[in-house]
Amino acid sequence: MEWSSHLKTKHLLRAIGTRIIPPLAYGVMRLLWWSCKKRFHTLSPIGEEQHVCVCWHGELLMSPQAYRAIHPHHPANAIVSSHFDGSLIANTLNFLGIKPLRGSSRKGAQRVLLQAFKHIKAGEEVLITPDGPKGPRHSMSDGAIGIALKSQLPIFVMNFQAKAYWQMKSWDHFIIPKPFTTIDFYLQSLSLEGKSLPQARDYLQAKMLEHTIRA
Predict the structure, then answer these.
(1) Percentage with pLDDT > 70 across the chain
(2) DSSP character for 131?
(3) What separation, in Å, do the N-terminal and C-terminal C-alpha atoms of the chain show?
(4) What backbone phi and psi angles, to 5 degrees, belong to 129?
(5) Which of 27, 178, 182, 39 is nearest to 96 (CA)?
């Protein structure tokens, strides 16, 4: 009975959290976005061409906003884990008009990949964190690469560096830029055409590490 009561309380708190935390997180995201000076470095043309989009898990606070600054109206979906943390991320991304596809390489992989290809076929974009949902940090799972190779789409890489920031002690060293600092966004479109899966993995990881905070 005591265990059942504890479980119900846990579910209740999580249900409340998924309603309260995302709008607060979105409010913080937007306040930081508008308070900071932003510089966009387009390393290769992005345009309106359909992409598979990637950023590191530790850069999720700002990179989806950079995506929306570049593609303000493009239908987009993000692959998000089915865990509680994933629910918080999914509900926050909804405010940016980015729909969640729930699953990961560890749980529900086949189902979420089928969903991703369905949305890509409809002309929509898919956003993925290659080192999510639990790392290791800056590791490269095969999800984004496999989707890009099979769909023959280029990859839209989003990185940022902030002059002043807080860094959480989480596995992904989550980056929170300080208000009124300068944020440099590095955006590039990469083709994986002609590359094998291992070659594409090494190439994409190297490119994503060029302009990220690695400390």
Answers:
(1) 90
(2) T
(3) 47
(4) -100, 110
(5) 27
Q: Quote the Cα angle for 12-16-18, to 5°.
A: 115
- 159: nearest Cα among 58, 28, 89: 58
Burial of 12 (0-12, 13-18, 19+ CB in 10 A): exposed
Round to whole Å and give the CA distance between 62 and 201: 24
How many CB atoms neighbour CB 214 within 10 A?
9
Is the pLDDT at 152 greater than 80? The verdict is: yes
d(CA 88, CA 73): 23
CA separation for the pair 106, 108 (Å, rounded): 7
**pLDDT above 70 (res 87):** yes
Give, for 65, the enclosing helix (H) or strand (E).
helix 63-70
Question: In the Cβ-directed half-sphere of 3, how many Cα atoms lie within 13 Å?
Answer: 0
Instruction: Determine the Cα–Cα distance for residues 80 and 195; give it in Å rounded to an integer.
Output: 26
User: Rounded to an integer, what distance in angstroms lies between the CA atom of residue 131 and that of residue 137?
Assistant: 6
Secondary element (H or E) of residue 76: strand 76-80
Judged by DSSP in three states, 180 sits in coil
157 DSSP β-pair partners:
54, 188
Residue type, 3: W
What is d(CA 130, CA 146) in angstroms, rounded to the nearest whole number? 11
Model pLDDT, residue 102? 85
Predicted TM-score (pTM) of the model is 0.90
